[in-house]
Design goal:
The structure is a single chain. α3 packs antiparallel against α4, α4 packs antiparallel against α5 and α5 runs antiparallel to α6. Helix content is 64%, strand content 2%. It has a two-stranded antiparallel sheet. The chain folds into 2 domains: 61 residues; 119 residues, no CATH class. The protein contains 6 helices and 2 strands; from the N terminus they run αββααααα.
Length: 191
């Protein structure tokens, strides 16, 4: 699959989803897209969704028949490094959770805790990637959802966490063939 088409397709789909949420959330006079003399704010959503689906669904390149997938081998050093990284991330998460329970909610803006959890999860996977370990699809997915939800809570969009979850899940499912081909996610101990 053409990597740039996939990336731009996902970007278009995410933008379409965000515009759809804004169309529902904002008053009609705050989001304008004029077609002639009529306000049609749903037109960019439809166009971005169509372009995104077309780019993502474009034909992929066929894999050469002589290509073989490499055999999976577990490496004890990689397993130990991954265990140490996961322990650090869990420690940071528990410190964050304790802080959430200890600090009154009035002192910290809504969404800061979600952003912190997202940064911890995505940071864990960034360090895994840096050391050549495979990333966890589960913590990457939860980190993205947590980060986006926290930012939206800071912007006072409290009621759309479910929509963001569905959008991120849809984008992940669309990108899954490319992610599997790149072998980015899996057990960190495998080489």
């Amino acid at each position: 699959m053409n990597r740039s088409k996939l990336i731009w397709g996902i970007i278009c789909l995410v933008l379409a989803g965000l515009l759809a949420v804004l169309n529902v959330r904002l008053p009609a006079d705050k989001l304008m897209f004029m077609v002639g003399s009529r306000n049609m704010p749903y037109v960019p959503v439809i166009l971005l969704a169509i372009v995104g689906v077309a780019l993502v669904a474009s034909p992929s390149r066929a894999k050469a028949p002589e290509e073989k997938t490499p055999e999976i081998v577990e490496d004890p050093a990689r397993a130990a490094l991954n265990k140490r990284l996961e322990t650090i991330a869990w420690g940071l998460f528990l410190i964050m959770l304790g802080g959430f329970m200890f600090v009154p909610g009035e002192l910290i803006a809504r969404g800061i805790w979600s952003i912190g959890v997202g940064i911890i999860m995505l940071g864990l996977n960034a360090v895994r990637y840096r050391y050549g370990l495979r990333m966890s699809g589960f913590t990457t997915f939860l980190g993205i959802v947590s980060l986006i939800s926290g930012v939206l809570e800071l912007l006072f969009f409290e009621a759309i966490e479910g929509a963001i979850l569905i959008i991120v899940l849809g984008a992940y499912l669309i990108a899954k063939p490319w992610i599997d081909a790149q072998r980015l996610f899996g057990k960190a101990e495998e080489s």
